[in-house]
Amino acid sequence: MTDKLKTEDKFTYAEAGEGPAIIVLHGLMGALSNFEATFNFFSNKGYRVLIPELPLYTLPLAKTNVKNLASYLQDFLSFKKIDKAMLLGNSLGGHIALYFTKHYLEKVNALILTGSSGLYENAMGGSFPKRGNYEYIEQKVRDVFYDPKVATKELVDDVYATVNDRMKALKTLSIAKSAIRHNMANDLPKMTLPSCLIWGKQDGVTPPEVADDFYKLLPNSDLFWIDKCGHAAMMERPTTFNQILDSWLTTRKL
Question: What is the model's pTM?
Answer without folding.
Answer: 0.92
